[in-house]
Design a protein that fits this description.
single chain; four-stranded mixed sheet; 13 strands; Rossmann fold; 6 helices; alpha/beta
């Protein structure tokens, strides 16, 4: 079945589509398509949810497409298909986003909150932007062939703090540990952008396309 990248006008769709299609072709996996049609989502074999910008804007953008989130949730929670959230797409998996003094409900798939980054080193600027090395990688098929010290590309001012540390699959050091990836059951998320992370990102995308939870 098709891998569907969800288009809700809040993500770097073109870059993600190109990278996922490249790996799908190389690995001869199911085709990749981009859609905002709930009916297409309900037939998806895998779902990818990108997201850039503010948590609240992305949440409202998703809700503006009638039936879209409901189709995603049904396919992921009831259908058990693999899901990958990217950047704010990952953050929305949390229980709540706390931006600019305003709380916005998330999916509550990964219990926890999205809060502003506060690096212990005052010389580190927020947003956290650029290349940084992954740390504390837990054994998981998503990270097969990826090791601590491999670099990924980040652009964010907020980060997800899960209630259960077991849901953290990898971290990055930015004035203290910051969640770089999360996972639970058939649901995965990366704070970094795999579509912009060159070799590391393409490897992760390929792992996701072959993953059968």
């Amino acid at each position: 079945m098709t891998t569907v990248i969800v288009d809700y006008n809040s993500g770097n769709i073109h870059s993600a589509e190109k990278s996922f299609q490249r790996m799908a072709t190389e690995l001869e996996t199911a085709p990749v398509t981009v859609s905002s049609d709930p009916d297409v989502i309900r037939r998806a074999g895998r779902i990818v949810l990108p997201g850039v910008g503010a948590f609240t804007d992305c949440r409202e953008g998703l809700a503006s497409f009638e039936g879209l989130f409901e189709a995603i949730e049904d396919r992921v929670l009831n259908g058990g298909v693999p899901f990958l959230g990217i950047c704010v797409g990952m953050q929305m998996m949390a229980s709540v986003g706390r931006e600019h003094g305003h709380d916005t409900a998330g999916f509550d798939w990964i219990p926890g909150e999205v809060v502003e980054m506060t690096p212990a080193d005052p010389s580190l600027k927020v947003p956290h932007m650029g290349w940084n090395d992954l740390q504390d990688i837990k054994p998981h098929p998503l990270f097969e062939g990826i090791e601590a010290g491999d670099h990924a590309y980040f652009v964010h001012s907020y980060h997800l703090v899960p209630t259960d540390p077991a849901h953290v699959l990898a971290t990055v050091d930015y004035g203290g540990p910051v969640t770089a990836a999360v996972g639970r059951d058939n649901m995965l998320g990366t704070q970094f952008h795999p579509e912009k992370s060159q070799k590391t990102g393409l490897r992760l995308i390929g792992n996701f396309l072959r993953w059968n939870p």
